[in-house]
Amino acid sequence: MNQIQLGQSELRVTPICLGTMTFGEQVDEATAHAILDRSLERGVNFLDTAEMYSVPARAETYGHTETILGNWFAKRPGAREKIVLASKVAGPARGMNWVRNGSTDLTGAEIIGACNDSLKRLQTDVIDLYQIHWPARHVPAFGNVYFDPEKDLPVAPIHEQLDAMATLVKAGKIRAIGLSNETPYGVHEFVRLAEQHGLPRVATVQNPYCLINRTVENGLDETMYRLGVSLLAYSPLGFGLLTGKYDASGTTGPDAPANARIGRYESVRKQRWGRHEALVAARRYNALAREHGLTPTQLALAFCYTKWQVASTIIGVTTVAQLDEDLDAWGTTLSPEVLAAVDAIRWEIRDPAL
């Protein structure tokens, strides 16, 4: 895998990134360290985490994923220097009262405090890519579809957040900044204010992108292309729907496979991935894969791995075997016939997991 540049930053990463949100919930520390060892052995140099992980978010596991990574760095001398490390500061608490005492904002002071806490858990002096996990302002995300002006309450301005990021960059605590779950407006505004005031320029946006959620292609892709901002695609397997594991049961509810993440957590099922329409669409794509001699995982990952919109695809796994399967899908090519069939399904079903 050739390394690619993230936005206009100096960061160069592999086009596959290991996401770690399962570490500390589904994945114990020993298994997590084995996955990290294998990922590094196979050449992946990009790790993504967040202060609120593991998922589903709970007070008992808040910050556990960063702690697991920090322990791995401490036990593997030299590993930190080989890794581009990304983490995220949570946006407004969204009911998580254990995050900044339930703050409904994300101020500059909160960004700086959260970064310092993450650095301690990660046992490192610098986070290479520090991202805002979701906007402070009201935006449709996590299964919400429509922007509602009545919910747009006063919050810390973007300029204040950029000032805080600049403080962290000058202190040597972060190298580049990014956004997540962001809109075209948000990306434009962050870049505009950064250029106008000489503040850190957004390098990346981490948004969902997969066969059952291609909303990035509804305008955000042009925004990022023209502004020189890189897409980090998360949930390329649609929270497991695009692996085929739910096809036989036909449900993401309690009757789903016992080892399946979405089947275990009611909060997740209430969001985009738990919609019946999302599973219906996923089963269509999974069947298409099998018709062409591919596994559902190969089709879903190859779709992301080969799209011009995607700089790096974030994969999340619970075992070393899953990691190897996802990495082995690199290099899979999709024929024009398969790509045409993918677009035909999307034209019919659109984006049920938006």
TrEMBL record:
GO terms for molecular function: oxidoreductase activity. The keyword Oxidoreductase applies. Residues 15-345 form the NADP-dependent oxidoreductase domain. InterPro entries: AKR_Detox_Biosynth, NAD(P)_OxRdtase_dom_sf, NADP_OxRdtase_dom. Pfam families: Aldo_ket_red. It comes from the Bacteria. This is Aldo/keto reductase.
